[in-house]
Design a protein that fits this description.
Length: 644
């Protein structure tokens, strides 16, 4: 028992009691802290399903300003005018409050009506002047901010439109849409309204402080004791505000992405009864956005209450001292009332300025998403001094081309070389995934090869003006691209300045005129989203007419008959031949039906040239080619031969 304290029967109990209480108290504090944390945070991925759309990388506030400031160029002059209104506003406000002091001290307390008329006139003048100011301010501010949005949104669209195909293959279109349409608005809040607001608050602060100091410097100093508390509170909350805003923006992007994907593929969704699954996906993101919005609201509400409390402390301090001074005759009643009124006006800019940090942080979450888009660089860049090509002869050369898609390990094309003379047709054949469409993408410079050179008329494509290159190529894809618009618009998309006669001539050549004439409104019939109101064959003939009217020397045909039945396939063969005649054509097909009349055939296997020659040569020496040929049915071939 060495060193032991005297034993008491109650000590253990008392000590145990104290320890228990202490433990309970600590547990309660822990619970309270956890509850507060939960109240003020947003769970980023509570269902653990993984992010559909990633959050954009964080960007410092200063950098956000630097990036968007150039877009204010057109409106900066007007910004000065707005600032003039901003300065005048608190002056009128303070004068009005001062008038109130005169009303109390010189009219109400002495019960003297003499001053009534001049005071009434002064009030009328102030109200009228305030109205004019508010009107001018509103109109100018809206003009400046809408001009800013106009410039930024246009620029963003132009930028995104110019990005390489690789970007669109990797990104969710709906998210990009949500950035271009939704996030842009928030940047305005950040930049213009934010700055004007900040300056307005500073001006108000200066004017009201000056009047308050003039009235009573000691009371004013007392009132200012609480100012730092506003700042500290705002700083503590801003990080949470930003986290909630980023999450909300990210979820909005996901919602747009799912909407675009599900509604864009509605036939697939309904045919496979995937509505419930799609709805589940949508609901998860929708709920995520709801949670983030609620977190924002909770943070804003708690912040508002804390700030109110701080403000009350300041007002009570002043009221206490002010009443004491009133009782001792150092202050008039009007003076005290006016002082307290001005005080609330003083707190509003202090509060506003500290709250602005939260607004900035919240808007910067949207700005980060825009900056991330603006920072995307096209994978193919135009040379600094590009070559003007004009109309090409149409000589195409693939020299030792090797290409691997970004993020993949196996090359899609490996040391591929071939040449197409002007007016000649080369068919690229091979099994699915052999690399045929990749060759077409390289020819349109959607990507640049990793090794080797692609030439048009002997010029490396990388030296040509991108527009020139694409002006010289007309393409027809497996999946016909038709816009929501009239038949006429869709054909004229190949050459917007085409006359009506040229459009009709192209439709005739594409064997499309007959079906177009039978449509309810002929060439003015609207073909629906992606041309869904037309049949596959009709869409393809429309695309042939479009390629005809473009009249480019190089033609790229990527599986033009795939997806069509034998009848429709046969129907477009004749117009296709007409289109191909006199143009250098690369015809991509794993369907050997259409490639028999090509001058030469390149047989691709796993990205390499397995064989190269005419149809008869390949048939004679390549077992793989012969197998592919047999696969696509000599019967069908015979039918086509009989027809042509
Ligand atoms: N955007 C892409 N990103 C990554 N890999 C791709 C991309 N596009 C195609 N690939 C891959 O490159 C290879 C060649 O594809 P490509 O589309 O050129 O084949 P293809 O011969 O045209 O096939 P198909 O006849 O089925 O259209 C394939 O293995 C494919 O998976």
């Amino acid at each position: 028992m060495r060193g032991a304290r005297p034993h008491s029967p109650f000590r253990g109990v008392a000590q145990g009691d104290g320890a228990c209480k202490e433990k309970a108290r600590r547990a309660a504090v822990r619970r309270l802290r956890r509850a507060l944390r939960l109240l003020l945070t947003v769970a980023e991925d509570p269902d653990g399903a993984g992010a559909l759309v990633e959050a954009a990388p964080p960007v410092a506030l200063r950098e956000v300003f630097r990036r968007f400031w150039p877009y204010t160029r057109g409106g900066r002059r007007w910004l000065v005018v707005i600032l003039a209104f901003v300065v005048l506003d608190p002056v009128v406000d303070a004068a009005e409050i001062w008038l109130f002091k005169i009303v109390i001290d010189d009219m109400l307390i002495p019960r003297d009506l003499q001053l009534f008329v001049p005071i009434a006139l002064a009030y009328l003048a102030f109200t009228f002047f305030s109205g004019v100011l508010a009107f001018a301010d509103e109109v100018t501010s809206t003009w400046v901010s809408e001009r800013f949005l106009l410039a930024l949104r246009s620029d963003l669209f132009r930028h995104v439109e110019g990005l390489s195909l690789g970007f669109f293959e990797r990104r969710r279109l709906g998210d990009v849409l949500s950035r271009v349409t939704g996030d842009v608005d928030a940047v305005e809040t950040f930049l213009l309204s934010g700055i004007v607001n900040a300056i307005a608050q500073i001006m108000r602060l200066a004017v009201f402080l000056a009047v308050l100091f003039y009235l009573r410097w000691d009371l004013t100093l007392l009132a200012l004791v609480i100012a730092p508390m506003f700042w500290c509170t705002a700083r503590r909350f801003s990080r949470r505000v930003k986290a909630a805003s980023r999450e909300r923006r990210r979820r909005s992007g996901s919602i747009s992405a799912i909407t675009e994907e599900a509604l864009g593929n509605i036939a697939l969704v309904q045919a496979y009864n995937r509505q419930r699954w799609e709805h589940g996906r949508f609901e998860r993101e929708n709920l995520g956005r709801f949670r983030a919005a609620m977190a924002s609201a909770r943070i804003a509400a708690v912040y508002g209450t804390v700030v109110d409390l701080i403000e009350l402390v300041g007002a009570l301090l002043v009221m206490g001292l002010g009443t004491w001074e009133l009782a001792h005759g150092h202050l008039t009643l009007g003076g005290l009332i006016v002082f307290l009124t001005l005080l609330t006006r003083l707190y509003s800019p202090i509060r506003g300025l500290s709250g602005l940090t939260n607004i900035f942080y919240s808007a910067s979450a949207a700005a980060e998403r825009i900056i991330e888009l603006l920072d995307q660089r096209p994978q193919v860049a135009q040379a600094a001094a590009p070559l003007e090509l004009g109309r090409a002869r149409g000589e195409i050369a693939f020299d030792d081309i090797t290409f691997r898609y970004p993020g993949t390990t196996r090359p899609a094309l490996h040391e591929v070389s071939f040449r197409v003379a002007p007016g000649e047709t080369l068919a690229l054949v091979g099994a699915s995934g052999a690399g045929k469409s990749t060759a077409a993408k390289l020819l349109l410079r959607f990507y640049d090869p990793d090794r080797g050179t692609l030439r048009l008329d002997g010029h490396d494509l990388r030296d040509l003006r991108l527009d020139d290159l694409r002006d010289n190529v007309a393409m027809l894809l497996q999946e016909t691209l038709v816009f929501h618009g009239t038949v006429r618009d869709n054909i004229a998309y190949g050459r917007p300045d085409a006359s009506d006669e040229e459009i009709v001539a192209a439709a005739h050549a594409a064997d499309a005129h007959t079906f177009i004439s039978q449509l309810p409104e002929g060439y003015d019939t609207v073909v629906g989203q992606r041309g869904r109101l037309l049949s596959g064959g009709q869409r393809q003939r429309l695309a042939i007419a479009r390629a005809m009217i473009r009249d480019a020397p190089v033609l790229l045909l990527d599986e033009p008959t795939t997806g069509l039945d034998a009848e429709s396939g046969r129907h477009i063969l004749q117009p296709l031949r007409l289109l191909m005649s006199g143009r250098s054509t690369i015809l991509i097909s794993h369907n050997l039906l259409t490639v028999r009349d090509a001058t030469q055939i390149v047989f691709l296997a796993h990205g390499r040239i397995a064989d190269h020659g005419t149809h008869d040569q390949l048939l004679a020496r390549s077992a793989a080619y012969a197998r592919l040929y047999r696969l696509h049915g000599p019967d069908d071939t015979a039918k086509v031969e009989a027809l042509s």
